[in-house]
Amino acid sequence: MTVWNLGSINADHVYALPHIPGPGETLAARSLTTGLGGKGANMSVACARAGGNIRHIGAVGPEGGWMVERLRSYGVDTGAIVTLDSPSGHAIIAVDDAAENMIIVYPGTNRQVPITHIDTQLAGARAGDLFLTQNETNHQVEAARSARIRGLRVAYAAAPFEAGAVRAILPFADLLVLNEVEAEQLRKATGQGPGSLGVADVIVTLGPEGCLWLRNHEEARFPSVRVTAVDTTGAGDTFTGYLLAGLDAGQAMPAAIDLATRAAALKVTRHGAADAIPARYEAEAFQEN
C-alpha cells in the first residue's frame, strides 16, 4: 500500500542559543546549521525511514531542488513534488541549552500547491491507501475529501494548531494526531474532548509521558522511552510518520505506537529535524538511557 502525504517542505535554519530570547532581547547564536524540515517533509522522511511506501505531494521554489533530492535520498517518492516560481518555505529555529525551541515559519510554496495537481496525484491512489496532511499547506480539506471519496483512510496531524482548520477537516478524518497542548486548545475551541469528536482514532502525544490512544470512548496509555533530550524539533513528526508506516503495513495500533514512540524518543537525542530521524533498525534496537 501507499501513504500519500500532502505536506510542507522547508529549509530549516537552526540557531543554537543559550536560552530562548524574550521580547526585545538580542542574542548571539553559537552556531547555524541548515537542513531539511517542514512538518510534511519530516513525516515523509520518518515514514520512509520506518520502511513505509510514501509519496509526497507538495511544492518547492526554484532554489528548492536540494530539498527534493534530500527527500529522495531518504527513500521518499518525490514524483508528486512540483517546482513553482516562488520562494520555497523556510523556518527559523532557535534551540536552547534545555532542548526547547522557538520556530518562525515562512510558508512560501507550501501554501501554493495547485488543487489540480493534488487531484491528479490522488487519482493514482488505491482504496485502502492512507492519506496524510498537516496544517502547513493549502487545500487540506479538498484533498482530504478527495481522498475519502477514493476510499483512502485519512490521517490529520493538527499542527500548527488552528481550531478552524481542525473543525473543517474532522468530517473526513479517520485518525487525528495532536499533542496535549493542541488537545486542550481544541477542547476550548469546540467544548469537546479529543475522544468525543466523531473521529475513529485519536492519539494525543504527551512528550516524555508517552501518548494516549482514544477509540470508541475507551483509552489506552503508552509510556515513553526515557532519554536525555538535546533537540525536540520534529519529535512529533517522527512519531506520526512512523505511526502511519506501521498502520499502512498492517500493524495493529499498539504495535505501531510502540515503534513510533521509540523512534521519537531516539530523535530527541539528536540535533536537527528530517536529517536526524532514525532508521527503523535503530528505533527497534533503542533502549532507555
From TrEMBL:
Enumerate the residues binding K(+): 231, 233, 267, 270, 272
Chain ranges of the Carbohydrate kinase PfkB domain: 6-279
> Where is this chain primarily localised?
cytoplasm
The family database entries (SUPFAM superfamilies) matched by this protein are listed as:
Ribokinase-like
Q: Which residues form the signal peptide?
A: none
What molecular functions are annotated in GO for this chain?
Answer: ATP binding; metal ion binding; ribokinase activity
By what means is the activity of this protein regulated?
Answer: Activated by a monovalent cation that binds near, but not in, the active site. The most likely occupant of the site in vivo is potassium. Ion binding induces a conformational change that may alter substrate affinity.
Q: Which GO terms describe its biological process?
A: D-ribose catabolic process
* Annotated binding of substrate, by residue: 10-12, 38-42, 136, 237
Q: Which cofactor does it need?
A: Mg(2+)
Question: What's in the keyword line of the UniProt record?
Answer: ATP-binding, Carbohydrate metabolism, Cytoplasm, Kinase, Magnesium, Metal-binding, Nucleotide-binding, Potassium, Transferase
Carries keyword ATP-binding? yes
Reaction(s) this enzyme catalyzes, per UniProt: D-ribose + ATP = D-ribose 5-phosphate + ADP + H(+)
> Would I find Kinase among this entry's keywords?
yes
Active site: residue positions? 237 (proton acceptor)
- Name the Pfam families on file: PfkB
Look up the domain of life of the source. Answer: Bacteria
Q: Assembly state and interactors? A: Homodimer.
Family assignment from sequence similarity: Belongs to the carbohydrate kinase PfkB family. Ribokinase subfamily.
PANTHER family (alphabetical): RIBOKINASE (PTHR10584:SF166), SUGAR KINASE (PTHR10584)
- Please name the HAMAP family in this protein's record: Ribokinase
Protein name as annotated: Ribokinase
Protein's gene: rbsK
